[in-house]
Design goal:
Strand content: under 5%
Distance between the termini: 40 Å
Number of helices: 16
Shape: globular
Radius of gyration: 23 Å
Largest sheet: 2 strands, antiparallel
Structural class: mainly alpha
Strand order of the largest sheet: 1-2
Number of strands: 2
């Protein structure tokens, strides 16, 4: 939420579809504007590509898991990659030839992610034969990172920190309100409110669904060691039976409604059991670094940050500092191993992907881009008499 508040304050001051890429250039001193937007843009691209990987690969895993219920189907890494490729092809085709249906998909997504998730949570709670008590849900600590697990080799706090990944990954994409701000009325206020409410609503619905699933666990040992390889599927089977679980899993697949780069990111799953976690780590780190750079620049150079209607006033800098420190923390923790022992099968290759982007972006900047990249271009319209005059301003260059 601190990151969201920091971003909301920036989007209120600079409501533009360029998002973090544009904010970094506007908030940085002119001589550093191009460099700031260059680095921000590359990390945002990494995050966007990896998010597609995480969502689509997760969907492929759900399809593969659902296919095992009441059938002789045996999922393999190769089969899952094949399903994943088909999903990406469908996404590419819709974006290339079926743009007119995107509005329908967006509207449907809103309904499925609100009413659908809420209905699923209620149905699971209502149908569960028995329910776990509050002590089990809120007090039971499960390591699940190997034998011995990281709670023994390191500490339970380390395991808990690694467990934040899925929640942090879910709470990404709230910069969408900024990208749509130029098409929004009273954008200086509505866009930051969109950022805050998207985080709040996602957190509430997500927490409610998690509680519903945890309270509805019938046999904890059987759930975490499920033959289906997916604890959620096991919970649904225990609650609704195999046929009911198939129906619900099919509906859940609709929630995961683009493509070559993403496919490449998922290829390591052919030889890695933690590929999905790595993809989500890459997405989370890439996006949050791109969110954090403008916040950090505003913190370092407050003189260039002219606040909008959404103004945190005396809390502005403390909130920005907490946001930047949190992003630094998750960037480190999400690069660390989550399974013990660490082998070629369980290696967290997040640091490799993030490192390639960091080294590539910095290297290309000093070797080439600094000589020709000028940063975002702002087009200003002015009325002179009866004529509309357009003036182009390069944010990474001194005004002449």
């Amino acid at each position: 939420m601190f990151v969201g508040l920091g971003m909301a304050e920036i989007v209120s001051a600079i409501p533009t579809s360029g998002g973090p890429y544009f904010w970094a250039a506007r908030l940085a001193p002119v001589k550093h504007a191009a460099f700031a937007s260059w680095i921000t843009g590359w990390f945002n691209l990494l995050g966007q590509v990896a998010v597609t990987t995480g969502i689509s690969f997760g969907l492929a895993g759900l399809i593969s898991t659902t296919a095992t219920v009441n059938t002789a189907y045996t999922p393999t890494a190769g089969k899952t990659i094949g399903i994943y490729a088909a999903i990406l092809i469908s996404h590419a085709m819709v974006n290339s030839f079926g743009v007119h249906i995107l509005r329908f998909l967006n509207d449907s997504s809103i309904i499925l992610h609100s009413i659908g998730v809420g209905s699923l949570a209620i149905a699971v709670l209502a149908k569960a034969p028995t329910h776990q008590n509050a002590s089990f849900v809120f007090s039971t600590f499960y390591d699940g990172t190997g034998d011995p697990g990281w709670s023994v080799r390191a500490s339970p706090a380390y395991v808990a920190a690694c467990g934040v990944l899925m929640a942090q990954y879910t709470l990404t994409g709230f910069d969408a309100s900024a990208h749509l701000s130029e098409e929004t009325r009273n954008a200086s206020w509505s866009a930051p409110m969109g950022v805050i409410t998207s985080i709040g609503i996602s957190a509430v619905f997500g927490f409610f669904l998690l509680l519903a699933l945890l309270f509805s666990i019938q046999d904890f040992t059987n759930t975490v060691g499920s033959d289906y390889g997916q604890p959620v599927t096991q919970i649904l089977v225990d609650v609704f039976g195999t046929n009911g679980a198939i129906v619900l899993m099919t509906l859940i697949l609709l929630f995961w409604l683009a493509a070559t780069l993403s496919f490449l990111l998922a290829l390591p799953s052919l030889g890695s059991s933690v590929a999905f976690a790595a993809a989500t780590s890459i997405a989370t780190i890439g996006l949050y670094i791109s969110y954090g750079i403008p916040i950090l620049i505003g913190l370092i150079y407050p003189g260039g940050f002219k606040k909008g209607p959404f103004n945190l006033k005396m809390f502005s800098r403390p909130v920005a500092l907490v946001a930047v420190l949190w992003i630094g923390f998750i960037t480190i923790i999400f690069c660390l191993p989550t399974t013990n022992p660490v082998t070629s099968q369980t290696l967290n290759y997040t640091v490799v992907a993030v490192g390639i982007i960091a080294i590539g972006a910095l290297g290309s900047w000093f070797l080439s881009a600094r000589k020709w990249f000028t940063g975002p271009i702002r087009q200003i319209e002015m009325v002179q008499g009866d004529t509309v005059v357009r003036e182009v301003e390069f944010l990474g260059q001194e005004k002449i």
